[in-house]
Design goal:
single chain, 218 residues, mainly alpha, N-(1-d-carboxylethyl)-l-norvaline Dehydrogenase, domain 2, Arc Repressor Mutant, subunit A, disordered C terminus, ISWI_HAND-dom_sf
């Protein structure tokens, strides 16, 4: 039942099986796994009834720490990114996390503090959507220029700070786009790039800025 439910869940979210380069027959394995997903079907009425019976047995091997990791992972990646959520919960297999997730979202309204939990998850999902929107806007803006590091024009309006020049802002924005806006620890890497950039060799202000300042600027 679990495997069938996992396959159908992946079908509903349009999951595409990645190719494992370590396997000698990687293409064949990928094709077969994708076929299972594409041909999967939801649980029948009898299977759903059996699933409900099994659910009443509970998750006795999940503790408060596991639950908190699961909630934080939903906040970090969004409720639909089950693969990354599964990797974030220590000591649990992907199958266990997927099964737990299915039960959680089916019965979460039974929790006393569900409003607080949902607010936490939705705040994280809002941040994810904001990053996606910013990345799309950045992609469009950068694509307008053949040499964005030199040509990018920045519209400041009335919000331009006094500390950074347009050259510095242009470098920060273009380098952030080059490294990947949604990359983990990208602002720490951005700060290191600034320190190594020859054009800022004697610019002690920008070289001394923290990663958080660079994050606010961008």
């Amino acid at each position: 039942l679990l495997e069938k439910e996992i396959l159908y869940y992946r079908k509903t979210i349009g999951y595409k099986v990645p190719r494992n380069p370590d396997l000698p027959n990687a293409a064949q394995v990928q094709k077969e796994e994708q076929r299972k997903i594409d041909e999967s079907a939801p649980l029948s009425a009898e299977e759903a009834e059996e699933k409900e019976r099994l659910l009443t047995q509970g998750f006795t091997n999940w503790n408060k720490r596991d639950f908190n990791q699961f909630i934080k992972a939903n906040e970090k990646y969004g409720r639909d990114d089950i693969d990354d959520i599964a990797r974030e919960v220590e000591g649990k297999s992907p199958e266990e996390v997927i099964e737990y997730s299915a039960v959680f979202w089916e019965r979460c309204n039974e929790l006393q503090d569900i409003e607080r939990i949902m607010a936490q998850i939705e705040r994280g999902e809002a941040r994810i959507q904001r990053r996606i929107s910013i990345k799309k806007a950045l992609d469009v803006k950068i694509a307008r220029y053949k040499a964005p590091f030199h040509q990018l024009r920045i519209q400041y309006g009335t919000n331009k700070g006094k500390n950074y020049t347009e050259e510095e802002d242009r470098f920060l924005i273009c380098m952030l786009h080059k490294m990947g806006f949604d990359k983990e620890n990208v602002y720490e890497e951005l700060r290191q790039c600034v320190r190594n950039a020859p054009q800022f060799r004697f610019d002690w202000f920008i070289k001394s800025r923290t990663a958080m300042v660079s994050k606010r600027v961008c």
